[in-house]
Amino acid sequence: MTQDAGDIENFETVSFHCRSPIHLCPTCSHAEKCQDLLNILRIFKLKEKEKPFDFMTNFPFLEQRTFKVDSRNKMNELSSAEWLQFSRTVFSPKLPKMLGHELRRAHPECKSPHVMGQLISFFTKRDDLVIDPFAGTGATLIAAALLGRDAVGFETSPRWVDLYYQACKQHTIPRRKMVEGDCSVLLHNVSKESVDFAIIDPPNPMNPSEWAPGAESSPGVNLDSFFDFMLRVMNQCYRTLKDQKYMAVFSRNLYYKGRYIYITPFYASVASEAGFTLKGEKIWENLGEKLRPYGYPHTYIPNIVHYSILIFRKTESAEEVVEEKKIKAPRGEADKS
After folding, report:
1. Is residue 32's pLDDT more than 80?
2. Is 26 inside any structural domain?
3. CA 120 – CA 111 distance, rounded (Å)
4. What is the pLDDT of residues 236-259, one digit of tens each?
5. Does 66 lie in the same domain as 30?
């Protein structure tokens, strides 16, 4: 039987009602047109084996482009509809577990290349350079490679570096440069104004060993020390980014010693001190995050399953300032300008 049960309406009407046992169907000359057999197959949902998921054609914005990019669009290669969809401030896509996920999920803050790919697709064009100071297992580098961008990542843990290269080999993904070491030092080697987009997924502020090599985790860690470190990193990102280019920062609030710590504004403040302008944020709900019964059944403790992705820009163009003045001004004054 090669036809799907859903195509029953395409078959000729069979005028007989068979009372033979189903094990005789394979030898029956009427089997291919038997509505009784098709109904049985529908009941038991016997379908043809699904084809394996083709990540190359289903990766964000990687499908073949059938339109001409607006000549005024100097930022990316997206259609107007794709641009509009990205501008939504909240998103919670269902992310396929692929592209080395079985290897990379060992990382406690493993991100999907599909999320990084959406950011890279919007803020860059083909052959642009992307940097990731905290590359982890290389989600940003994988996304950049599939989208035809160059990329450099920095990572202090040799374990995560090895996992990135294993994933690339396993899925035949073009490798990008992953450098082991402290990004606050290594970023000095990146040429000034050579980068088109920066993605920062910061380490855990409560675990100094992730961002201060040689340090040990301490329950009394001072957040000021962490943000002093982040300021040094963002200063270097500002130096390496081309003028008017963008930086995305992942921020996840903390629940620590019985208190909810709203950490996102601190990233905005530090980036502003480095010279960046905050342009907006996207709230990403990670549907893959496991829910745990914190506090049950005595007290409320949140399951933090969302990230704020803060979008910053290095300086503002004169044209953008004028447009923003028009938006803020009353209708009559805007028309005059």
Report:
1. no
2. yes
3. 14
4. 999 999 999 999 999 999 998 889
5. no
Which one has a higher pLDDT value, 18 or 198? 198
Q: How far is CA 42 from the centre of its chain?
A: 38
> With left for phi above 0 and alpha for psi between -120 and 50, is residue 136 left, alpha or beta?
left
Q: How far apart are CA 164 and CA 142, in angstroms?
A: 8
Omega cis (within 30) before 203:
no
Say if strands 306-314 and 276-285 run parallel, antiparallel, or are unpaired.
antiparallel
Query: What own/partner pairs with CB < 8 Å and gap ≥ 24 does 179-182 have?
Result: 179/152, 179/153, 179/154, 179/155, 180/154, 180/155, 180/156, 181/154, 181/155, 181/156, 182/154, 182/156, 182/213
Give the model's confidence band at 60: pLDDT under 50 very low, under 70 low, under 90 confident, else very high: low
Q: Which domain holds residue 258?
A: 55-325
Instruction: Report the Cα–Cα distance between both ends of the chain, in Å, rounded.
Output: 71
Do 108 and 182 lie in one domain? The reply is yes
Nearest-CA neighbor of 240 among 279, 199, 282?
Answer: 199
pLDDT value for 30: 72
Task: Say if CB 313 and CB 246 are below 8 A apart.
Answer: yes
In-domain check, residue 233:
yes
Selected residue with higher pLDDT from 155 and 10: 155
pLDDT in tens, 66-109: 788 889 999 999 888 889 989 999 988 776 666 656 666 666 67
Mapping DSSP to helix (H, G, I), strand (E, B) and coil, where does residue 278 land? strand
Residues 39 and 187 in one domain: no
The predicted structure's pLDDT at residue 111: 82
Number of structural domains in the chain: 2
Distance CA 74, CA 69 (A): 10
Q: Which alpha helices (DSSP H) does the chain contain, by range?
A: 35-43, 55-58, 80-86, 101-104, 113-123, 139-146, 158-171, 183-186, 223-240, 264-274, 318-328, 331-336
CB atoms near residue 139 (< 10 Å): 28
Look at the chain and count its residues. 337
pTM: 0.76
